């Protein structure tokens, strides 16, 4: 037994080295950001009305896109995990398209979509392009793909037995889903929402192309970093970057804490 453990040491050391290199890179990036900025820099950045407006729009748009992503991701993930239907392979492929496409292509595709007759018909009633709805939609398109993929894995890991038992006791398929399956999947729903929110926070390319980066109108934190860098204001760009890191970490920690509490 001792010999077996000793022989495993080089194996685990190699795994730890490979994984540690990546973790070390992430830590080094965060430390570098923190080393080149300070609370005073963040305070000066937040003193700007434009950046404060970008913060509020970021929080609102990310929350809206995350809710919409979960709203779509739950049923889509359930269908892909539990059912068979014609064209399932094509749907499965299409769900991954926003993830695989270059971000700028996603934004350009949305922009072209709203220049078609159906898109122009929508814009006669609601201005989408280069407005706040474009920010939410650009974030949602990519975030929903991650949410759907997360929910599919979640439902695949849950046994369908409890849902089948509920149906034998008189529940319809829909009632069994709402009362049995969905509560069992609550940790997955929380994970999908967190991932969608975090992905929306960092969305840049689609937002820039489809919504623009107009100060006080469609500017979010990701585009704020770009705008500040474009005018050579590295201090403000780093301050906003650190702010985004703090918000992302806070959301992840809070959501995981609530998830653990809900499971207890």
TrEMBL record:
Residues 55-255 form the ABC transmembrane type-1 domain. It is found in: Cell membrane. This is Sulfate transport system permease protein CysW. Keywords: Membrane, Sulfate transport, Transmembrane, Transmembrane helix, Transport. Gene3D superfamilies: MetI-like. InterPro entries: ABC_perm_TupB-like (IPR049783), MetI-like (IPR000515), MetI-like_sf (IPR035906), Sulph_transpt2 (IPR005667). The chain crosses the membrane at residues 12-36, 56-81, 93-114, 126-148, 236-258. SUPFAM superfamilies: MetI-like. Part of the ABC transporter complex CysAWTP (TC 3.A.1.6.1) involved in sulfate/thiosulfate import. Probably responsible for the translocation of the substrate across the membrane. The complex is composed of two ATP-binding proteins (CysA), two transmembrane proteins (CysT and CysW) and a solute-binding protein (CysP). NCBIfam families: ABC_perm1. One of its GO terms (cellular component) is plasma membrane. The keyword Transmembrane helix applies. One of its GO terms (molecular function) is ABC-type sulfate transporter activity. It comes from Urbifossiella limnaea. It is a multi-pass membrane protein. Belongs to the binding-protein-dependent transport system permease family.
């Amino acid at each position: 037994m001792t010999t077996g453990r000793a022989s495993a040491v080089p194996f685990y050391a190699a795994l730890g080295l490979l994984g540690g290199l990546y973790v070390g890179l992430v830590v080094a990036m965060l430390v570098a950001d923190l080393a080149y900025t300070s609370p005073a820099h963040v305070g000066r950045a937040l003193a700007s009305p434009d950046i404060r407006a970008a913060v509020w729009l970021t929080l609102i748009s990310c929350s809206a896109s995350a809710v919409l992503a979960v709203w779509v991701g739950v049923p889509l993930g359930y269908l892909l995990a539990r059912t068979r239907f014609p064209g399932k392979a094509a749907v499965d492929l299409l769900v991954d398209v926003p993830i695989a496409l270059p971000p700028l292509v996603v934004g350009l595709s949305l922009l072209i979509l709203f220049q078609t007759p159906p898109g122009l018909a929508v814009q006669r009633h609601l201005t989408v392009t280069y407005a706040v709805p474009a920010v939410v939609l650009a974030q949602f398109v990519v975030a929903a793909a991650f949410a759907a993929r997360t929910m599919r894995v979640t439902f695949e890991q849950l046994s369908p037995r409890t849902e089948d038992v509920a149906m034998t006791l008189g529940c319809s398929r829909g009632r069994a889903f709402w009362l049995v399956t969905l509560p069992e999947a609550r940790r997955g729903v929380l994970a999908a929402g967190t991932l969608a929110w975090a992905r929306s926070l960092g969305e840049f390319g689609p937002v820039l192309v489809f919504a623009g980066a107009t100060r006080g109108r469609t500017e979010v934190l990701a585009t704020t970093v770009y705008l500040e860098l474009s005018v050579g204001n590295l201090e403000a760009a780093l301050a906003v970057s650190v702010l985004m890191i703090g918000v992302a970490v806070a959301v992840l920690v809070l959501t995981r804490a609530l998830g653990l509490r809900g499971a207890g």
